[in-house]
Hints:
Elements: E1 4-9, E2 15-17, E3 22-24, H1 26-34, E4 38-43, H2 51-62, H3 66-79, H4 82-92
Parallel strand pairs: 1-4
Antiparallel strand pairs: 1-2, 2-3
Amino acid sequence: MSPNKIIKRYANRKLYDTEDSKYVTLKQIVESIAAGREITVIDNVTKEDITGVTLLSAIVETEKDLSGQVLTLSAILKAGGLSKFVESLKTSV
């Protein structure tokens, strides 16, 4: 098992898990992260790292309660960005 799971996003917006050789949903990506996996999402055409944008989409999709979304996004902004927010979560556990 590689330390960093690579997900490719294709032009049709589908997400492909290169490790498990299957298409995945945002919910499955969230579940992988919750299980402790490191995820990197790469645009298949440009090869650009789009992990942050994808994780924000996952937050919005998985949060059913709008107030939860606002609180989560506010916390990300207050932390100084997604990477700092994620780091703060790791240190608070």
